[in-house]
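Case study 2.
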Amino acid sequence: MGGFAVLRPVSGFAQQLTQADWERVHVLTVEAMNELYNLRFAESEAKCGEVMKLAPQDPRGYFFRAMVYYYRNLIYRERADYEKFLQVSGKAIQVCEALLKNNPNDSKTMFYMGGLQGYRGMLHVNNDELSKAIWEGKKGYDMLKSAAETDPNNVDAQMGLGLFGYMISQAPSFVLPALKLAGLKGDRVGGLKMLEAVAAKGTYARYEAMYWLSNFYRGDMEQQYDRAAYYLNTLMTQFPNNDFYRNAYGALLLFNLRKADKAIAQYQSIVSKAESGAKVNAVALGQAYFRLGVAYMYKTKFSEAEQWLQKCISHAADTVQVRNAHHNLGLCLEVQGNHAAALPHFQKSTGVPRSVALLKTPLTPHEIYAEKQTLLFNAGDFDASFALGEQIIASVGVANDVRAEALYLQARALYEKGDYQKAEEKFAQATGITVNKETWLPPLTRYRLGLAQIKLGKKQEAKSNFEQALSYEKYTNDEFTKRLIQKELARLKNL
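Prediction:
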């Protein structure tokens, strides 16, 4: 979640209110914004109502009232919030159209209108309305482009343009023909540059740009974790009551940086706040419970993990959280060799593909060791993960898939510790094993072997392994993996 700062009235209506009235509109708008991004939705909507009453022909009150329902829909996934957002944003767009009819070159009004159309497009995607999403996105993009061209100093207009550019560059291939037909073109690097400019100099969309940058930078495509942490810390400071920012920072620590203990501290602070009687968003609290369970599971502290996952299930603020908590609770029990106790949890999480697989076939003893090796790697305990891999490799009768993955994880542990020479050796060993089920493993191993070789200055060897990695077909997340590989091939040309 991000935010906006509104500093002056939309041009064309200053004559309708006194200067004092406009100052009051500004103050109320800023208050509405702060309430919104501190997750006090009712208070924000009340402030927006006051703005709309003072300035009924100005889009600001309508804009921020619409954003209340935009964020409510993102958090609670309620259809009623989606429909309310469409209704209120539609009214705001009508207000913008009236303004633009009188002044077609009003860049700030174009910004509001284009922004709303863009947000409508994003919610259409979340609610499985793809054709509507592309149509609204195209209208929003064109409006924001006009705003930027009309007033090159309107930095905020770059927010939507940068967001469109980056997100379209990451769109799945099946969507690309429709995007091309709509005249929408992706620009990964240019999109990030625009968002950075808004985060540094923007007025209306500064915090919104920071939020999206934090998301993109902690993704696998960018892996700029320091930048993601900088923006998340800025947002946590600016909006201390928004625990989704702290949850996102915890996710960066847990899933990207593999610092389970530091992540636990972030999630525990949310839980402690709730236990002290302070107001915490119910979905954010459930997310903290769930991720505490995951963090302790990674550390193979299964008793603690089970307690937090059960808390998430009992809390029941979000059906997806509950489903995933059941899956992980089942996995904790499975890894401890208690398949019978795990089964009811897998049955309650059949939306998770791995739960379906484990319902049919329990883990073998060797696979249980492999699972623990993966968990310890995810926790950042690279030495323990490596040692467990040694036990797996030395065991008799280990399946090829398990042996190959053990070598792969050992290599990754060495890479994380900066021992690129030994990592290269382990990755190379893994490439020599033919796997049966884990079809994702050969291309990922080649990809990471290439990364290690780049660190060792072996550009041609890296290039060869990247090209071999691209030759594999039909495996989990193949399209995204190939984008990562193509990115590294492009980067090699500049080394």
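Residues 79-102 form the longest helix (24 residues).
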